[in-house]
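Please predict the structure of the following assembly.
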Amino acid sequence: MTLDPRSAAATALLFLCLLTAASPAARAQTNAAAPVPAQDPASVAFCDGCHGADKLAQDATVPDLGGQGAEYLQKQLLDFMRNVRAMLARRDESRNYTGQRDNVTMHPNAQAITESDAVDLAKIFAARACHQTVPPPPRPASVPAVRARCEACHRDDGKGDKGTVVPRLAGQSSPYLFNQLNSMRRAALGLVVPGTASERSHPIMNAELKELEIADLRTLADYFAGLPCK
Ligand code: HEC
Ligand code: HEC
């Protein structure tokens, strides 16, 4: 077989490239550029690293996304994405009309996805079954009367309003619910220190929580966490 000099040159060049690519520095570069499916931030497996059913029990501050409304999940992802730059640096009251949200753990995840990923991922998680908190928190002896107002939007069964941005609270982890209530109450009272680990502000919820004490928030979180999610 005679070698075509051009293809021999091409082979030599390819070999040289492979050699160069094998050097540690070049390999690091190649790996950074190459897609690594298991860790692709837009993949469900990546999200399940924290939100997966087997992980939820390990960290009660991580919410269950299963069975939550797609509209609500999508809005939360977009809130996280839009505010990642703005919110930790400063409070931006003009955006408070539809809400603001940031959290140190979700911050890099939200930065790593596109808006179209957010739409797809919201649909995928909404279509899953919810996971009941196990064991449920003890049923509070008494729940603040304001509960009736909460139920006007989140419904008597706490399952939220599917098709809208009002979320399911029933069966969600109590520490997670408490963190959300506490963040929104702090926003309502102007107690937010920019750069804190978790910030959330929503005009409707802020107004609901303004008059409540921290102990009320814990009771409400336990109450809704104890309702069946299905
Ligand atoms: C390293 C852990 C981790 C990873 C990975 C992760 N999340 Fe989260 N996620 C969290 C935590 C913690 C919260 C609660 C944040 C808070 O308290 O505001 C959260 C909150 C959320 C919420 C808000 C839910 C609600 O009820 O309001 C959504 C939606 C969400 N994550 C979607 C995703 C998606 C989609 C991915 C994959 C692209 C992802 N997360 C990857 C830890 C993670
Ligand atoms: C007028 C309607 C309305 C009322 C009343 C209301 N909520 Fe909400 N709630 C909402 C909406 C809308 C959101 C989504 C906020 C956002 O987009 O960040 C929400 C979000 C929440 C969340 C965050 C859930 C999650 O998965 O992150 C909790 C917890 C919550 N509400 C609890 C309560 C409690 C407790 C009360 C009563 C004290 C209450 N809500 C009253 C409309 C309402």
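The two ends are 71 Å apart (CA to CA). The longest strand covers residues 100-103.
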